[in-house]
Design a protein that fits this description.
255 residues; alpha/beta; 8-stranded mixed β-sheet; 19% helix; elongated; leucine-rich repeat; LRR_R13L4/SHOC2-like; repeat; Leu-rich_rpt; LRR_dom_sf
Length: 255
């Protein structure tokens, strides 16, 4: 067998010139370094010279490891590493204090390979951990108080810690297709954050007088709408309109 094959597949070499030509301007005016879908197998060291970018996209490559030097991207707000072959994340990722978006979906990450330092990302709004090999979620992620969305779908989870489910600003939690003990619990986890959209049914006796009156008034309004029968539509009549085209030209807006 040839030596090249023994070492495995060799990815595309990214030069500084290629990297510079891959910088795009995002919709909000930030600078995005887009190196997605380039067949990269090792983190290109040359991009450390472009560490002042706001966004870094290394998704859909064949990366197995992200070096600790990722901490040099101090301005980074948006980091996309989804669809690689990552087996671990460096502790240094916790030093990216400006990060608000982190996508590490569709990799080979286990619970043990998630660094505790993830909970240092205090400005993180969106975290995607779906399609990995997680059998539990660290309770320390409950420290991400600014988190709005978290993806935990397609893992090996049997439960989700309350510290994560009860994050104060969480609006969306996707934990579908995990082996939760029963379907009821799975449905609860899959959509547990739609609490503001949930309809709670109560009896009249459980409501205070003002709330009861308000509900009764709303119900009466709905009943009135249901009982209203639509009047048959009548064809419009324009007895004085003899030459419609010329009249419409004179007063276009009215017609």
């Amino acid at each position: 067998m040839a030596k090249g094959k023994e070492k495995g597949q060799k990815g595309k070499k990214i030069t500084l010139k290629i990297a510079k030509n891959s910088i795009r301007i995002s919709f909000d005016g930030g600078r995005r370094l887009d190196l997605s879908k380039m067949g990269i197998t090792t983190f290109p060291k040359c991009i450390l010279k472009l560490a002042d970018v706001d966004e870094l996209d290394l998704s859909r490559n064949m990366l197995k490891k992200i070096p600790s030097s990722i901490e040099k991207f101090q301005k980074l707000r948006w980091l996309d590493l989804h669809s690689n072959q990552l087996e671990e994340l460096p502790k240094a990722i916790g030093k990216l204090q400006n990060l608000f978006y982190l996508n590490i979906c569709n990799n080979k990450l286990t619970t043990k390979s998630l660094p505790e330092e993830l909970n240092l990302l205090r400005n993180l709004r969106i975290l995607n951990l779906g399609l990995n090999c997680l059998d539990s979620i660290p309770t320390s992620l409950g420290g991400l108080k600014e988190l709005n969305e978290i993806g935990l779908f397609d893992n090996a989870l049997t439960t989700i810690p309350n510290s994560v489910k009860k994050l104060p600003k969480l609006k969306k939690l996707n934990a579908k297709r995990n082996p939760f003990p029963d379907t009821t619990e799975q449905e609860e986890h899959a959509d547990s954050v739609k609490r503001t959209e949930t309809l709670y049914l109560v009896q009249d006796k459980d409501l205070c007088s003002s709330c009861l009156k308000m509900c009764q008034d709303e119900r009466d309004k709905l009943n009135k709408l249901k009982n209203v029968t639509p009047s048959p539509s009548k064809k419009p009549s324009f007895p004085l309109l003899l030459t419609p085209n010329s009249t419409a030209k004179d007063n276009q807006e009215e017609w």
